[in-house]
TrEMBL record:
<comment type="pathway">
    <text>Purine metabolism; IMP biosynthesis via de novo pathway; 5-amino-1-(5-phospho-D-ribosyl)imidazole from N(2)-formyl-N(1)-(5-phospho-D-ribosyl)glycinamide: step 1/2.</text>
</comment>
<dbReference type="Pfam" id="PF02700">
    <property type="entry name" value="PurS"/>
</dbReference>
<dbReference type="InterPro" id="IPR003850">
    <property type="entry name" value="PurS"/>
</dbReference>
<comment type="similarity">
    <text>Belongs to the PurS family.</text>
</comment>
<dbReference type="GO" id="GO:0004642">
    <property type="term" value="F:phosphoribosylformylglycinamidine synthase activity"/>
</dbReference>
<comment type="subunit">
    <text>Part of the FGAM synthase complex composed of 1 PurL, 1 PurQ and 2 PurS subunits.</text>
</comment>
<protein>
    <recommendedName>
        <fullName>Phosphoribosylformylglycinamidine synthase subunit PurS</fullName>
        <ecNumber>6.3.5.3</ecNumber>
    </recommendedName>
</protein>
<comment type="function">
    <text>Part of the phosphoribosylformylglycinamidine synthase complex involved in the purines biosynthetic pathway. Catalyzes the ATP-dependent conversion of formylglycinamide ribonucleotide (FGAR) and glutamine to yield formylglycinamidine ribonucleotide (FGAM) and glutamate. The FGAM synthase complex is composed of three subunits. PurQ produces an ammonia molecule by converting glutamine to glutamate. PurL transfers the ammonia molecule to FGAR to form FGAM in an ATP-dependent manner.</text>
</comment>
<keyword id="KW-0963">Cytoplasm</keyword>
<keyword id="KW-0436">Ligase</keyword>
<keyword id="KW-0067">ATP-binding</keyword>
<dbReference type="GO" id="GO:0006189">
    <property type="term" value="P:'de novo' IMP biosynthetic process"/>
</dbReference>
<dbReference type="GO" id="GO:0005524">
    <property type="term" value="F:ATP binding"/>
</dbReference>
<keyword id="KW-0658">Purine biosynthesis</keyword>
<dbReference type="InterPro" id="IPR036604">
    <property type="entry name" value="PurS-like_sf"/>
</dbReference>
<keyword id="KW-0547">Nucleotide-binding</keyword>
<dbReference type="GO" id="GO:0005737">
    <property type="term" value="C:cytoplasm"/>
</dbReference>
Length: 87
């Protein structure tokens, strides 16, 4: 069994109020070294069998067509979660 991770982020031109709220809270909590925050989504897709190039391509297509809103979000990464695969 394998796992594929699909990371989705708001497009750069889209306002990110959640990220802005987190960015405002971090300095108050002692994390002043961060200048901005963008909040996205992470999807973990499990597959029966190995993660192949075809599985990764299908995960990217699912990310672009189903898991994200292509008007305001981009699929920024699709990769095998090798930490889970090694367990």
């Amino acid at each position: 069994m394998g796992r594929v991770v699909v990371d989705v982020m708001p497009k750069p031109e889209i306002l990110d109020p959640q990220g802005k709220a987190v960015a405002g809270a971090l300095p108050r909590l002692g994390f002043g070294q961060f200048s901005s925050v963008r909040q996205g989504k992470r999807f973990e897709l499990e597959v029966d069998g190995p993660v192949t190039d075809e599985v990764l391509a299908a995960a990217r297509a699912a990310g672009e067509q189903v898991l994200s809103n292509p008007v305001i979000e981009d699929v920024v990464a699709v990769y095998e979660d090798t930490q889970v695969a090694a367990q």
